[in-house]
Amino acid sequence: MGFVDKVLQWLGVADVEEEETPSLPIVDNRDLNRKANLVSLQGAKTVRVVVSEPTTFEDAQDLADSLKNRRQVVLNLSGTEPDIARRIIDFLSGTTYALDGQTQKLGESIFLFAPSNVEISREPRPLLRSSFTYSRGNALGREE
User: Rounded to two decimals, what is the model's pTM?
Assistant: First the structure.
């Protein structure tokens, strides 16, 4: 459509032709903003803890593989022979050290081995004992 045709249409002499404009898809900016704000969190996955009572040294390799797969390992060695228990602790301690993890003794023969993505909070024992007092007569743990 030229300049003369536009002037004639403006004067009302020529017929008005409707031009087809290509339709553009409608984009909702809210959807774009919502997608742009999505962030992947590594810690949002479920945490898996392996609890084990090994009886032979051969079980130690499976536990080390669990540490390599970033799972915590709780080890109960109360039913394990002392020599085998010592070898398992040494093996898992070395694995944990190589993976920049942490080791914590939880009880007489219970140990926690954690990979580098898990932080073990080490509070002094007197604080843990004073934070909760158990009374036989009261189920809530408050002294009367």
Answer: 0.54
2-47 per-position pLDDT tens digit: 777 777 777 766 665 555 666 655 655 555 544 445 555 565 556 7
The CATH code of domain 47-131 reads 3.30.110.150
Question: CB-hemisphere CA count at 13 Å for 7?
Answer: 3
DSSP 95: H
Domain residue ranges of the chain, discontinuous segments joined by +: 47-131
91: helix, coil or strand?
Answer: helix
Q: Are 92 and 113 in contact (CB under 8 A)?
A: yes
3-state secondary structure of 70: coil
| Tokens read off for 46 | 């479920």
Per the CB < 8 A criterion, the answer to whether 89 and 112 are in contact is no
**What burial letters (b/e) apply to 131-142, b meaning 16+ CB within 10 Å?**
eeeeeeeeeeee
For residue 113, the tally of other CB atoms under 10 A from its CB is 26
